[in-house]
TrEMBL record:
Belongs to the LysR transcriptional regulatory family. Keywords: DNA-binding, Transcription, Transcription regulation. It comes from Paraglaciecola mesophila. Residues 17-224 form the LysR substrate-binding domain. This is LysR family substrate-binding domain-containing protein.
């Protein structure tokens, strides 16, 4: 009986310190694929009794997951202050930039950069507004900065679908640079030289009360932030 009481007390202590329990992370695969695996692996080494669950979700899906208490932390694009739940804290991880996504046989795939206005008469494929309102608004800001009124031919719900549609010749894509990390042998990615719009990736989590397992992961993110920024740099 004493041994069971000690075991139960130790379990409670571990959970309270974030050394045991669960950590459910919602993430955007294109934005996180080249740093999240190593980050989770490092966290698991130092916190072997924390069960980590990774959920590939759009921004909209992450916000719904927070409402349903299905995730503890999101690696996501920020939403407007008006739509932001008060209990969520937001911390910047890194800033991305837009690139043009061209079909592999497009005549401009070999140039180092393109002015967006050069392609003003092309049909454009952009990520669906309802899945990431902030990204959609940033995309429109990029067109506005270039003096382009876009003909938007498609709004896919996933970045992988965007690549498939561009590869099929259905339009020109505009997306964050991180899309290059997804699998595609039918698309080329070219820098845009007449607009500069930062696309932040942030960590969002409930901080009142603060989940101890989230706290340990947030601390690891802070420690690795400079390394992550170097790793994902578009330059």
């Amino acid at each position: 009986m004493i041994a069971l009481q000690k075991s139960a007390t130790e379990k409670v202590r571990r959970v309270a310190k974030g050394e045991a329990g669960q950590l459910r992370i919602g993430y955007i695969s294109s934005a996180c694929s080249n740093f999240l695996p190593d980050l989770v692996r490092q966290h698991s080494v130092s916190h072997p009794n924390v069960q980590v669950t990774l959920l590939d979700l759009t921004v909209h899906g992450q916000q719904q997951a927070f409402k349903n208490n299905d995730i503890d932390i999101a690696l996501t694009s920020p939403i407007s202050d008006a739509a932001q739940p008060m209990e969520l804290k937001t911390e910047l991880i890194y800033n991305d930039e837009f690139v043009l996504v061209l079909p592999q046989d497009h005549h401009l795939t070999k140039v180092p950069s393109i002015a967006l206005i050069v392609l003003r008469d092309s049909p454009f494929i952009v990520f669906k507004r309802e899945e990431a309102v902030g990204l959609y608004e940033q995309t429109l800001n990029a067109f506005k900065a270039a003096g382009v009124t876009p003909l938007i031919s498609s709004q896919p719900r996933s970045m992988q679908t965007l690549l498939v549609e561009v590869g099929a010749g259905l339009g020109i894509g505009i997306a964050p640079h991180c899309i290059k990390r997804l699998v595609s042998n039918t698309c080329a990615f070219v820098k845009i030289n007449d607009v500069s719009v930062s696309i932040p990736l942030v960590a969002q989590y409930k901080h009142s009360p603060m989940n101890p397992t989230v706290s340990s992961f947030v601390n690891l993110l802070a420690e690795r932030k400079s390394e992550i920024q170097r790793l994902v740099s578009p330059q």
